[in-house]
Write a structure and sequence with these properties.
Radius of gyration: 21 Å
Largest sheet: 5 strands, mixed
Distance between the termini: 36 Å
Low-confidence stretches: 412-424
Shape: globular
Bound molecules: zinc ion
Number of strands: 18
Mean pLDDT: 93
Structural class: alpha/beta
Length: 424
């Protein structure tokens, strides 16, 4: 994952703006300074490929500390408006004895609230977003070592938390149920550790007050869109999401004991493992239910299909930004090619060369064009995904869920019913 490689994959995927990640790491930061140049305030591109992928300076920090008599493990994202701000934050972390060399995502003993205070003291423009907010381990709302509210975690500084990142195991509907997220943005990022995984979740920004081009975007535009500043030049258009059941922590259970419970089963059977008698890893679905103010049903949602058949999910009052759910193209191709990795990868390369970027193929190309270049089966598959009619076997305790697009004709009727139940 060099910057060149991230940029190359971003082009294949159709990602315009991407986070560098890991700027707290000394070697990676050196590479950022050597290979990137600032093209507009807070936005960077490769020196040798200006006009290609734009980068934002972001990093993730793992805070492990004790608060209220409990051990807390929280991951937070820090978006910096400039190289000089990064340098000041790095210096302060070093002063506080943090070992930044140990990992791209360093572990620090500084609490989330102290970390937020620290970075805002250095530069009030810094954007601070709790990462993958619902995963049981390492997140603000996590069942294992998180908090029950942003307020509890950040106290008087909660007002500087303008957004949370949903992670792969939750989607916006689940987050719309939480009272204190009402006026906060819901953002999605890929949390990728390799090129092919980039863009598996993403946030789409669109023009708000003025029409600006990609090369004119600044750090402030992104920050003020996330802060929902009414005068901002950009706003969040929508987010691109996994089907949350596909995430590793949607349901509850124990991987090694082969126990997997949905939220209802947890209510009925409790959260102690019947095999090893230790507490189960309580999944995101259950955790959201526990903290929800109100449960949203199908009747509280609005499904709006656009001209290429892509379904946008809104809340009924349309007070929130909508989202679309997707399955990565390679996963779709694996199912279409009897799970042959070689065949699926070859087809992925061909399609992203001849038809368009991955995000174009999944979200924007019309069905006729997809069928012409990719065949009838691919067209059907993308239609099923865009219409949200997939079947997902939920993930739990670190095991990814399994998505299925096509099933036997017999199962089709059941599948539709079941999909509705598990999705909403
Ligand atoms: Zn993390
Ligand atoms: Zn167990």
């Amino acid at each position: 994952m060099t910057l060149e490689e991230i940029s190359r994959w971003s082009k294949i995927k159709g990602i315009g703006l991407i986070a560098t990640g890991d700027w707290t790491h000394p070697l990676w930061f050196r590479s950022i300074k050597e290979n990137l140049k600032e093209t507009s305030p807070g936005i960077y591109t490769l020196k040798n490929k200006p006009g290609e992928t734009q980068f934002l300076l972001s990093t993730e920090i793992s805070s492990i500390y004790s608060q209220g008599g409990q051990v807390r493990r929280i991951h937070n994202l820090i978006f910096s408006p400039s190289i000089s701000t990064c340098e000041k934050i790095i210096k302060e972390l070093n002063n506080r004895g943090c070992n930044l060399m140990a990992d791209g995502r360093p572990i620090v003993g500084i609490s989330s609230v102290d970390l937020l205070k620290m970075v805002l003291d250095i530069d009030e423009k810094v954007l601070f977003i709790p990462a993958h907010a619902w995963t049981p381990w390492f997140s603000i709302f996590g069942s294992k070592s998180g908090f029950d509210s942003i307020e509890e975690c950040f106290d008087g500084y909660a007002k500087y938390i303008y957004a949370i990142e949903t992670g792969l195991s939750s989607d916006p509907i689940m987050n719309w149920q939480i009272k204190e997220l009402k006026n906060r943005s819901i953002v999605s990022f890929s949390d990728a550790h390799s090129g092919p995984k980039l863009g598996r979740e993403a946030t789409v920004f669109v023009n708000n007050k003025e029409t600006i081009t990609n090369s004119q975007i600044t750090f402030d535009d992104i920050a003020s869109a996330i802060k929902q500043d009414l005068n901002s030049r950009l706003k969040i258009g929508y987010t691109i999401e996994f089907f949350p059941e596909e995430g590793k922590y949607h349901w509850s259970g124990h991987r090694v004991c082969n126990i997997r419970y949905n939220a209802r089963e947890i209510k009925e059977k409790g959260s102690i493992c019947p095999v090893c008698h230790k507490p189960l890893t309580v999944g995101v679905e259950n955790r959201v239910l526990d903290l929800s103010e109100k449960l949203l049903g199908q009747e509280d949602l609005l499904m709006v299909k656009n001209k290429v058949g892509l379904t946008f999910v809104y809340d009924k009052e349309k007070t929130r930004r909508p989202f679309v759910s997707m399955i990565p193209l390679l996963e779709i191709l694996l199912e279409l090619n009897d799970h042959s990795v070689v065949k699926a990868q070859r087809e992925y390369e061909r399609l992203t060369k001849d038809l368009g970027t991955e995000l174009d193929i999944l979200l924007r190309k019309d069905y006729e064009e997809i069928e012409k270049v990719g065949g009838e089966k691919l067209r059907q598959a993308i239609e099923i995904v865009r219409e949200r009619k997939v079947f997902v076997d939920p993930g739990y305790d670190g095991v990814f869920g399994k998505v299925k697009i096509f099933k036997d004709e017999n199962e089709k009727i059941n599948e539709k019913k079941q999909t509705q139940q598990t999705l909403f």
